[in-house]
Amino acid sequence: MDMTSTFPTFILNPLDFFFWILKPDYALNFMAWFLMLKLIAISFSVSYYLKKNYDLSLIIHITLSMMYTFSGYIIQFYTNIWWLDTVALFPLIVLSIKYINQKGKTIPFFLLLSFELLTCQYMSIMVLLFVLFYSFGLSFTESDKVKRRVFVTRIGITTVTSLLVSSVLLIPVVLKWSDSSRTSGSIDILDLCGLSISTFQHQKVFMLFNTEIAVVISVLLILGSILKKEKIPRAIVFKLYIFVIMLMPVLNEGINLLWHMGSYVHFPFRCAFMLTFTGIDLIAYVRNEYGDDPIIRIQSNVKRFVVGKIVAMIVIASMVIGVNLYSTFFENGILGRTVSYYGLPELLIINVILYALVICFYNKKIRERVFCIVTMMHLTVASVCFIAPTDYSRQDDFSYYVMRDKFIKDSIEIRNSGKIENDYVSRIKTLYPCLSRNYPIILGIPSVNQWLNENSVSFLDELKMLGYDYNYTSNFDSGGTYFSDAILNNKKIIVYGDVYVPENAYKKFTASGDYTIYDMNYTLPFGMLTDEKICDTDCDDMTVAEHQIQLARAFSDGDSQIIKVVDPSDIELISSDEENKEYVYRYKLQTGARSLLYIGTNSSYNISVNDHEMFFPYFDETDNLRSQRPGKNGVNLVYGFDKDDEANIEIKLGSNKIERLQMILLDLDAMEKLSEKYENLSVETYEVGDNSLRMTVDVKENHYLFLPLEYLEGWHANVNGNDAEIIPVMNGAFMAIQLPDGHCEINMKYMPPAIIKGEAITLIGLAVALLLFVMKKRGKDVAEIPWLANVVSVVFNLVAVAVFVIMYILPVCN
Q1: What pLDDT does 41 receive?
Q2: How many other CB atoms sit within 10 Å of the CB of residue 394?
C-alpha cells in the first residue's frame, strides 16, 4: 500500500523516535511515557512564551501553563499523541511571529513552521490559517504603515519559503489526500451557511473548558468601553479579535467545518488548543491592566458577607457538578458518543458567573487566589478522570472503550504466539471485526484493512462492491466472500471466541488466547494468468452478487458457476408487523454441492438456519466494532452446507423491501476446481522489496497477469527489459499487465510521482532560504524594498480578507 499520507507523521517525525527502536510488545507502555514527556514539553513551551511576554506571579504563571497543558482539547484528544507535537510547538510559533514584528528576526519562525509542515501536515494547515489571521490582526497594532508593510512582507515571504522547503513531504501528502476516499465527498461552502450553535456537538463544547475567565474578561472589557465611552487600546483589541476568531468555530458549525477542510470524524474541534492559548494570552495581558481595587467596591459588611456566601456556594456547586460530570468519563472512557455530557453547559455558565463575581467584587490578590484554586481543582479532577489509567478489571466487558487497548494487546499476542509466516503478498483477514484496525501493522502481515486516507476512491469503491466492510475512517477486511478473499490473496482468517466457522471451508491453523486462526481450504495464488476478460471487470449499477458473478466469469472458463444468487421471488413473507416494522421471510434451500451462504443487506437482521439463530447488527445502526460481534455493513457469512443438505432459513428484517436483500450461495466444489486450475497458471517465483516486485512466469495461452495490488500511478513495470503498460482493472482498483509468449522476467517499482516533484521544489526552497539568509547578513533585507513590500502587503491583506469572508462571513449567513 502507498503510505505517503501516514509515513511522514508517524515514521519521520523525530519527536516520535521511540517507534524506530521499539519492541512492539511495549507499544502501549511507551505511548504512556511519551504522553507524559509531551505534556511536559507543552507545559514548558507555553511557560516559555508567558515568561518572554509577561511579568506574572509564580502561581498565575503555573496556573496558566497548566490550563494550556490540560485544556479541554488535550484532556479529550490526548490519544492522538502525534497532534501533541503541534500543541507544544504552537506557543513558540506565535512567539516567533512576535519576534518578526518586534525584532525583524525570521529564522525562528522559518525553522518552527518548516518543522511543523514536515512532521504533521494535517495540523499544519490549521496552523497556517491561524498564522494568517494572527499576523493580519497583529499588523494593525502597528500605527506606522511602513513598519506594518515590512512585517507583513517578512511573514509572507518566510511562510512561502517554509512551504517550498517542506514540499518534499507536504505536496505528496496533500496530493494523496486529494486522490483518496478521505476527500471523495464534495465540499459546498453554501451548504455550510446557516449552520449555527444549534448544530454543535457536546464534544466541541468541552473545548470551552479553561476559557471561562477569558470570556468574562472579554465581556467586561467590551462593556466597560461602552459604558465609559472610551476606546479600547489597539493591543487589547487585537487580543480580543484573535480570541473571538478562535471562539467562533464553537458557536457556528459551518466555520468549524471549514477549519477542518469540510469534514471531520469524532474529533469536532481539532484546533481548540488555539482557542485555549488565545484565551490564556488575553488573561495574561489584561491581568496587569486592572488596578488592585475591585471594579465594584462593596461598602457594607453585610453586602460583603452576602457576596462571599454566593461565591462560596457557586464554588461548591461548580466542583460538585464538575466531579459528577468528569466521573462519567472515568467510568466510560473518552468516547464522546457513549458518555453523557449532561451538566456541561451548566458547569461552564456557573464558572463564568463565578469568575465575573470575583473579578468585579474582589481585589487582585483575592481574584488570583480564587481563580488559581478553582481552576487547578477542575484541572486535577478532569485530567485524572480522562487520562488516568482506567479499570482494567473490566477487560471482558466489550462495551468498555478501554477495550481498544486490549485489541492492541491481543494483536501483539497473536503475532508472538501465532507464528504466521509472511511472504509479503499473502493477506490475512478477520472473518468478523474483532481486532484493532491497526492489527495488520502490528502483525506485520498484509491485509485489505486500511485507513481511508491511504486509499484511492476507486479502491474503496471496489472493496464496497466486493462486499467488504467500511466505516467513516477506514475499510475493513471483514466481509466479502470466500471467492473475493481468494482473488485478493487472503490465506488465513482470524475469529474471536466461539463464532461459527464452516468446517468445509476453513481448517484450524492455531489458537492464541480467545482468538483462533484458520487456513482457507481453497485459495488462489498470487499473480494469476488470465485472459482479456480481466480488462472487462468494471461495473456500473451492479449488486455485490452480480459483481462477484462477473469476476467469476473473468477468472474461470465461464462454465463454472461459483456464485449463485437466490431469486427474491423464491423468498416467502410469512409474517409482518407494520407497527413495529418487523417482517419475517422464509426460504427453503436444497444444495446440490458444498456451499456457503452469505447475506447482504442495509439493515440489522436476525436469521435462523435449521433453528441455529444469529443476529447481525448493521454497522451504521450499532457501533459493532466495540462489541466484537459478527455484524457489519458488507456481506456476512452465515452458514456452510454439505452436498444435498436441506435447510429452512428464516430472516427477520426491519423493512418489507425484499429486493434490498442479497442471498448469495458460493459453490465450494467450484472453488476447489478453480484453485486447482491456477496452481500451474500463475507466477513461478516472486521477490518483494521495499518498493519493488520481481516475478518470473512462463506464458502460453493466458497473457494477462493479474496482481491484487492497488493501482497507483507511481507503479512502473518492465518485462524482459521493455517497458510494459499497467492496466487498471476491477473499477481501477487493481492491476494487470499484458505479457508476451514465453518466459517473462517482470520487474516492478513504485515511487509516488509527487515525491520527485516535491524534492525539486524543496531544493528551490532551500536555495531561496539560503539566498535570503545571505542577503540579510549583508544588510540587504528584501522586506524593506518599498515596491516589494507594497505588493506583498496588498496580496497578503487580500488573501486574509478573502479567507476571512469565506470562513467567517458566508457560514453565518442564513
Answers
A1: 94
A2: 13
